[in-house]
Amino acid sequence: MDGVERTLSAEVHVLFNGYVGSHVASTVSFVRDGDARVIIDPGMVPDPTAILKPLVALGESADSITDVIFSHHHPDHTLNAALFTNARFHDYWAIYKGDTWQDRPAEGFQLSPAIQLIETPGHTPQDITTLVSTRDGVVAFTHLWWSADGPQEDPLAADLTQLHINRQRVLAIGQLRLIVPGHGAPFTPDETTPR
Questions:
Q1: Which one of 3, 11, 61, 157 has the minimum C-beta count within 10 Å?
Q2: Exposure string (b/e) for 15-42, b if CB count within 10 Å is 16 or more?
């Protein structure tokens, strides 16, 4: 990330593995870093308990969430945001809480010592990727990939050229160990990962 040496204690948990087919659901994740309790892409799932039960199993509740990050604004990634009434909400250009709107670019925004946002347009012009540094390496939460199995080319991409540029950017991150895609289980990138 920024090259600063830190003792990292961020925990990464996938609460729900998303999918696309006759039904659609987003991959919903939870990151704990110090006082930060972060939900990423609280979108469409069969029922809100698909998000809340695994969260409770981790010793947290909807009320304990401090921040929610949207990779982009499609409803399948945002639909359950209202579950987290105490949270700040982050997207590509601002932070929102209650009736406040604080402009800021996502690029390089450090949400906590181990959580950083970067701008990665392609699927939409407003896509962002969340990078989390853990003891085992960096985890990227992103919609640059739908799942480990594809599709190779994003059929809904607003800009395929930008998507491929940003896939390469993410894959070039030092100590990248895991990608959490928009609609699938986490995967370890390798030479077969679509660029």
A1: 3
A2: bbbbbeeeeebbbbbbbbbeebbbbbbb
List strand residue ranges (DSSP E) for 93-174, in order: 94-97, 100-103, 110-112, 115-119, 128-134, 137-141
| CATH superfamily of the 11-180 domain | Ribonuclease Z/Hydroxyacylglutathione hydrolase-like (3.60.15.10)
Instruction: Say what the pTM is.
Output: 0.93
Closest to 28 measured CA to CA, from 88, 71, 89:
71
pLDDT value at 141 more than 60: yes
Give the closest residue to 147 by CA, choosing from 42, 58, 10, 27.
27
Per-domain residue ranges of the chain: 11-180
